[in-house]
Design the sequence.
């Protein structure tokens, strides 16, 4: 098993606050995560759960208005909370890289993809133009782009969405990062193209022994690619554990509810109604007491209004719920 | 009403667009839809699946009368759509679009958004229209107080409910749903899918349900048609098409649908990722450059859409030879 030395990213009690006219919005509330070398961690949740802000906060890319606090935020043993901006700039794009959802908006439309691929490499002083070009061609080939050398002079608009996302992945990998953070990298793509990109990410993660943190709303992706899963709701991680355990025996009613919402060919007979989660996500403005899910939870009880402690077992499965452990188990 | 005719029938429908052209460049023809024939019977849900650019939304626009086919016929309720007036058409077929953020007028409140089709069609008095809007709100699961809300005050799921209410207020027979849940969160998607099922049963609606999500289609549709580059490549009863796909493309689509089962890894995908240029379609079968089961005849000769074992139709030279599990 992986030891402490393999921990690439370690964050304890991350908070992100955004001032709004109505009061302070607590968008991320006490998130603790670790990502290990050679491991894929998926952060899953619905819109507004704070998963994207969490990933931006980890990279130090939050908008200026947002305030970040944490007990610990370390990258490969280095304290990022106290690191100067210059050190963060040196790490970002080099040892920690990020892929965003929309490949069109994160590629510069007026620069060739060759310029964009080599920029980080040159900026981080990894070599000269010649070696940058060679690396770019090699990586484009690696991400499955045929005729890579000829593509360097092309502009983003000349590529399809799937190819653009492959270019973005190649860009992120130019310096051989230890941590790759991917925020909804396939959401804008067709299912067939999505599968190709996920296969590529999984292969590269193994090959380069990176820690891959994948942020997504799609439980299907999580089930197929994740080693570990963190389920977020209303700014908190409500459940975390190995993918097999979280999917087979969820301990938090929100995780269970999410799973019941997905139609599954073969298991959901045509015409049957899907499970739903009634109600809406609570407002995160102002202070919140107790479990954020209690207003929508079929198992809510008086204890839910008190602060809910994180419980866990020896296998690293942790959840934030007061229910008895077997409360959500189902007859198979 | 003609009870014998299907609510929707497409006969050899083509749609071609001229693109480019200028001082030096030759104007070229993009064939978005190339000879599609399909039927939707009363009370039936036909699921239409395919990747972006396969022509499924163009087809929807022709069925809604927003575009005229270049060739072929669209029949609503047995009558050619070209012979129907705008108002007549609006009473037969209505759309629900993907993005509830851009399909609702942000400056109108919910009651006037839902009530607008009634005013356009001159249905009822002011009081009757108000009652009709109130009834629709209840039908789609919105509270009476939402009547005065503006779209910006509603969540994505609530907005999609408003879009559905607007589509149903004239009591159409056919609703064209173009990716109605793709922009929504999974828990909201489940609510909207349940609502569409309820409404279909209560109002006897027929849906043309366009989606790239096969799991969603499987839950809703009685029949499924798969489109690739403007052509229907497979069509048939949903259980058969999704249970035993005969076309390698349908099989590949099915394989790329990721079900939340952690015991399965990422499926192997032997589908080429080279998406063909719709301006220069491949010879023979348009799918052959990506097909894992391709052989010499495929590049030469386009397969016809023929009946296949187990029911339905498929356009593949290998149909009936049971060789497509490969994809």
Sequence:
């Amino acid at each position: 098993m992986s030891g402490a030395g393999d921990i690439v990213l370690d964050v304890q009690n991350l908070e992100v606050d955004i001032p709004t006219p109505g009061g302070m919005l607590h968008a991320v509330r006490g998130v603790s995560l670790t990502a290990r070398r050679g491991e894929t961690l998926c952060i899953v949740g619905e819109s507004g759960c704070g998963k994207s802000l969490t990933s931006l906060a980890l990279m130090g890319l939050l908008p200026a208005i947002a305030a970040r606090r944490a007990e610990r935020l370390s990258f490969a043993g280095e304290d990022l909370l106290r690191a100067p901006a210059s050190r963060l700039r040196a790490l970002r794009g080099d040892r920690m890289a990020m892929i965003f959802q929309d490949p069109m908006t994160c590629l510069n439309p007026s620069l060739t993809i060759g310029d964009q691929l080599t920029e980080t490499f040159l900026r981080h002083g990894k070599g000269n133009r010649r070696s940058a070009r060679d690396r770019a061609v090699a990586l484009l080939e690696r991400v499955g782009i045929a005729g890579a050398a000829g593509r360097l002079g092309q502009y983003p608009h000349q590529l399809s969405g799937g190819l653009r996302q492959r270019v973005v992945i190649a860009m992120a990998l130019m310096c051989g990062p230890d941590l790759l953070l991917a925020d909804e990298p396939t959401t804008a793509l067709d299912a067939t193209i999505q599968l190709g990109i996920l296969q590529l990410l999984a292969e590269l993660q193994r090959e380069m022994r990176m820690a891959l943190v994948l942020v997504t709303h799609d439980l299907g992706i999580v089930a197929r690619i994740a080693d570990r899963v963190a389920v977020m709701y209303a700014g908190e991680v409500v459940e975390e554990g190995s993918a097999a355990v979280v999917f087979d025996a969820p301990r938090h009613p929100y995780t269970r509810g999410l799973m019941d919402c997905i139609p599954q060919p073969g298991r959901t007979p045509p015409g049957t109604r899907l499970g739903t989660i009634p109600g809406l996500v609570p407002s995160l403005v102002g202070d919140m007491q107790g479990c954020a899910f209690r207003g929508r939870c079929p198992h809510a009880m008086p204890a839910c209004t008190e602060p809910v402690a994180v419980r866990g077992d020896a296998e690293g499965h942790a959840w934030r719920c007061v229910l008895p452990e077997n409360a959500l188990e189902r007859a198979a | 009403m003609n009870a014998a005719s299907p609510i929707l029938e497409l006969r050899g429908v083509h749609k071609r667009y001229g693109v480019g052209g200028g001082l030096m460049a030759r104007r070229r023809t993009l064939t978005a839809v190339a000879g599609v024939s399909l039927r939707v019977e009363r009370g039936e849900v036909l699921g239409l699946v395919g990747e972006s650019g396969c022509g499924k939304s163009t087809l929807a626009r022709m069925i809604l009368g927003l575009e005229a086919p270049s060739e072929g016929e669209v029949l609503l309720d047995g009558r050619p759509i070209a012979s129907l007036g705008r108002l007549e058409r609006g009473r037969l077929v209505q759309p629900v679009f993907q993005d509830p953020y851009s399909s609702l007028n942000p400056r109108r409140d919910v009651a006037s958004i839902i009530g607008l089709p009634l005013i356009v069609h001159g249905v009822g008095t002011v009081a009757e229209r108000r009652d009709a809007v109130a009834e629709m709100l209840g039908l789609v699961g919105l509270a009476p107080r939402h009547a005065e809300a503006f779209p910006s005050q509603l969540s994505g799921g609530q907005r999609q409910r408003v879009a559905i209410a607007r589509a149903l207020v004239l009591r159409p027979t056919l609703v064209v749903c173009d990716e109605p849940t793709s922009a929504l969160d999974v828990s909201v998607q489940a609510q909207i899918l349940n609502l569409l099922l309820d409404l279909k049963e209560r109002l006897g609606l027929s849906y043309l349900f366009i989606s790239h999500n096969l799991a969603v289609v499987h839950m809703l549709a009685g029949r499924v048609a798969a489109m690739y580059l403007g052509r229907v490549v497979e069509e048939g009863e949903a259980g058969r098409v999704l249970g035993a796909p005969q076309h390698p493309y349908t099989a590949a689509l099915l394989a790329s649908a990721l079900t939340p089962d952690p015991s399965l890894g990422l499926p192997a995908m032997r589908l080429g990722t080279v998406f063909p240029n719709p301006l220069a379609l491949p010879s023979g079968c348009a799918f052959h450059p990506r097909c894992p089961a391709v052989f010499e005849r495929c590049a030469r000769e386009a397969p016809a859409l023929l009946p296949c074992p187990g029911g339905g139709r498929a356009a593949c030279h290998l149909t009936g030879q049971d060789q497509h599990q490969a994809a």
Q: What stands out?
A: Chain B has a mean pLDDT of 89. Chain B touches chain A through 48 residues (CB under 8 Å). The first strand of chain B starts at residue 8 and ends at 20.
